[in-house]
Amino acid sequence: MSLTSGLFNYWGAIILMMAGFWVVVAQNNLVKKLVGLGLFQASVFIFYISIGKVADGAPPIHDPAVALYSNPLPHVLILTAIVVGVATTAVGLGLIVRIHEAYRTVEEDEIHALDVEDDEDGEGSGRT
User: For the CA atoms of 68, 57, 74, 32, what is the dihedral angle to 10 degrees?
Assistant: First the structure.
C-alpha cells in the first residue's frame, strides 16, 4: 500500500478544507461564505475523527484481553463542535437575513458600496 492511499482521510480533509477556505475568501455572496464556512468545519471534523481512530484499536471498555484502545476524546469533542457549528450557522443566517432587510442585497461589494455612498452623503449608515 502506498503512502498516499493510506492517508486518504487526511488528503480528503485537506482538499475539503482548502475548498471551504476558497469559498469563504473568493465569494462575495454572504450565504455562499456561510456554506464555505460549513464546509471548512466539516473538514476539520473529518480530520479530528481520523486522528482519533487507531488501527486495530478496540472501544475503550475495560477488557483484560485487549491491549490497544481507540481514544474516544476526539469523537466527544467533535460532537460538541457539531452543536457549536450548527448554532454558529443559525446565528450567521439570522445576521444575513437582517443584512438583507437593511440593504436589500447579500453581496458584500454592494453592501460596501452602499455604506460608502451613505458616508459620502453625510447621512451615516442610517440603515435599520
Answer: 160
Q: Helices marked H in the chain — which ranges?
A: 3-6, 8-26, 30-52, 73-103, 108-121
3-class DSSP state of 107: strand
Structure letter (DSSP) for residue 29: B
Walk along the chain (128 residues) and give the pLDDT tens digit of each residue. 566 667 888 999 999 999 999 999 999 999 999 999 999 999 999 999 888 777 788 888 888 888 888 888 888 899 999 999 999 999 999 999 999 999 999 999 999 999 999 888 876 656 66
CB 111 within 8 A of CB 105: yes
Topology adopted by domain 3-53+66-121: Helix Hairpins (1.10.287)
State if pTM tops 0.85.
Answer: no
Distance CA 95, CA 55 (A): 43
Domain ranges of the chain: 3-53+66-121
- For 92, residues 6+ apart whose C-beta sits below 8 A from its C-beta are 34, 37
